[in-house]
């Protein structure tokens, strides 16, 4: 017996805006279900594969994330992908990481994520 990670849920003041940001980052299509949004990789089996879910909450983020998403560049190097992510609204942030091969960024609501150095292709 075991479990799989099915969904990663991001609490948001503006779930549509945050979902649109992540859709741009990942190239995933955005879907709306009532007041919440979700997305999965193109061609994913919606009943089995990983989904990102974006839910409205009334309060803003107040401290560093305890869990975060890491992304890797595809078809470009880290510096080119960093420029693209910043053009989508990501900002570099310092969470005390020191000198590392990854770049710590924050999405439009301050949720930290890392851009790794290695390309996956």
How far is the first residue's CA from the last residue's CA? 33 Å
Secondary-structure element string: EHEEEEHEEE
CATH topology-level name of the largest domain: 2,3-Dihydroxybiphenyl 1,2-Dioxygenase, domain 1
Spatial strand sequence of the major β-sheet: 1-4-3-2
Shape: globular
What does this protein look like?
With 121 residues, the chain is of the alpha/beta class. The chain has two domains: 60 residues, 2,3-Dihydroxybiphenyl 1,2-Dioxygenase, domain 1, CATH 3.10.180; 60 residues, Roll (2,3-Dihydroxybiphenyl 1,2-Dioxygenase, domain 1), CATH 3.10.180. Helix content is 19%, strand content 27%. It is built from two helices and eight strands, in the order E-H-E-E-E-E-H-E-E-E. A four-stranded mixed sheet has the order 1-4-3-2, covered by helices on one side. A four-stranded mixed sheet has the order 5-8-7-6, covered by helices on one side. Strand 7 and strand 8 form a beta hairpin.
Structural descriptors:
121 residues, alpha/beta, 2,3-Dihydroxybiphenyl 1,2-Dioxygenase, domain 1, four-stranded mixed sheet, 8 strands, 19% helix, 27% strand
Provide the fold topology.
Layout: E1 7-12, H1 15-26, E2 31-33, E3 36-40, E4 51-56, E5 69-71, H2 78-88, E6 91-92, E7 103-106, E8 112-115
Parallel strand pairs: 1-4, 5-8
Antiparallel strand pairs: 2-3, 3-4, 6-7, 7-8
